[in-house]
Design goal:
Layout lengths: L11 H9 L4 E5 L3 H10 L3 E4 L3 H4 L11 H12 L6 E5 L9 H15 L3 E3 L7 H9 L4 E6 L5 H4 L9 H17 L3 E5 L3 H10 L4 E4 L7 E4 L1 H4 L17 H17 L11
Helix pairs in contact: 4-5, 5-6, 8-9
Length: 271
């Protein structure tokens, strides 16, 4: 690529065009400058500043504790690294449920203070007013249906959702509603592959699956899970592309050994 060649930014329209021509969309999570830079340069189309930062960055058991301020901090770090990918930020728990006015204020803060490109929200009909209000301010919204981790205490489990006919029906209706309201894409989490196929084919906007099978228009994983930095999370849908926990641990152990053996720094590593 020549120095003067413009890097083509991924926009919501680009994602729409990708679905139309049958090209799959790649999405991974990013929470900090260094990792986001790698994801962007590797060619990921969408970087999700996920509320999963609550788990992988802060060590909480659920996504619930992370605050709007913390999400803005993570999103700002990612924005500074990225030249090409579309950056979507999760509206954290409590930042949009119950009041569309609060939802709009939260979304505006994310956009203004971080410079991200879109927000993501969990739920269907029950958050319709908030989605509508945020969209009316010109802020792109990505939906999220199926397993909605912010509702963990309502479900009581992280099991596969929408296996029953009634829940599957509601999911189909919610997906259509989110599209009609103006969402540009919908994440489908932990639902049967066949339901993903039906929903994806019924929508014009792209679906992004996680544990939702091959028929989604794109896929998302938590980067730390996919790279093997986290060790204890091993669901069926996760493919590990590296084992960085062991690799990094080995490197650190070697460093410790070298320092103690007065092997580091050597003559060429000092002034």
């Amino acid at each position: 690529m020549s120095v003067h060649q413009e890097i083509k930014r991924i926009t919501v329209h680009v994602l729409q065009a990708m679905k139309a021509r049958g090209e799959k969309i790649t999405m991974l999570t990013g929470y900090d400058f260094s990792m986001a830079r790698i994801l962007d340069e590797a060619g990921v189309e969408v970087i999700l500043v996920g509320d999963s930062a609550s788990n992988v960055m802060a060590g909480h058991e659920t996504t619930l504790p992370i605050t709007l301020d913390q999400m803005i901090y993570h999103a700002s770090s990612v924005v500074r690294a990225v030249k090409r990918a579309l950056i979507v930020v999760d509206l954290p728990f409590g930042a949009y449920q119950g009041s569309s006015r609060v939802a709009l204020e939260s979304a505006i803060r994310i956009m203004k203070e971080s410079g991200a490109h879109a927000v993501k929200m969990e739920g269907g009909a029950e958050i319709a007013n908030s989605v509508k209000r945020i969209l009316s301010a010109g802020i792109p919204v990505m939906g999220h249906l199926g397993l909605t981790p912010q509702s963990i205490y309502k479900f009581g489990t992280y099991k596969v959702r929408a296996k029953e006919e009634e829940e599957a029906e509601k999911l189909k209706q919610d997906a259509k509603l989110l599209e009609d309201l103006g969402c540009f894409a919908i994440v489908l989490e932990k639902i049967p592959a066949q339901l993903t196929k039906v929903v994806s084919e019924s929508l014009i906007i792209p679906t992004i699956g996680i544990g939702a099978g091959v028929h989604a228009d794109g896929q998302v994983l938590v980067t730390h899970d996919m790279l093997g930095i986290t060790k204890d999370f091993q669901p069926r849908f996760l493919r590990r592309y590296a084992e960085l926990f062991d690799e990094i641990k080995g490197a650190v152990a070697q460093y410790c050994a070298d320092v103690k053996a007065v092997d580091f720094p050597n003559d060429t590593e000092q002034y």
